[in-house]
Design goal:
With 91 residues, the protein is an all-beta fold. Helices cover 0% and strands 25% of the residues. Strand 4 (79-81) and strand 5 form a beta hairpin.
Length: 91
């Protein structure tokens, strides 16, 4: 399955969405953290948002040398948190 949308967001440039870039990236630095968001359309698989997956695999291919002491984490995002505390469902 291929992602349908992706973006890299950066703490140093919070108004910028790098969704048109060829790659996504993560980075940790003081006041310059970067995180990647990836969306998958599960509708073609017969799965929906209430389906529990027993296992899944996400393959990450590094394009630059990795820091051996840094692990990558994956989290499910179902909506976004706004500065005012309200939530908006993702489309």
């Amino acid at each position: 399955m291929t992602s349908t949308r992706d973006a890299t967001i950066s703490q140093a440039a919070p108004a910028t969405n790098n969704g048109a870039a060829a790659t996504v990236s993560t980075h940790t630095a003081q006041n310059a953290n970067q995180r990647s968001l990836v969306r998958f359309d599960l509708s073609a698989t017969g799965l929906n948002s209430s389906t529990a997956l027993k296992t899944s695999t996400l393959n990450l291919v590094p394009t630059t040398a990795l820091f051996t002491s840094r692990s990558q984490e994956v989290h499910r995002v179902t909506g976004d948190d706004r500065l005012d505390g309200s939530r908006r469902q993702l489309e």
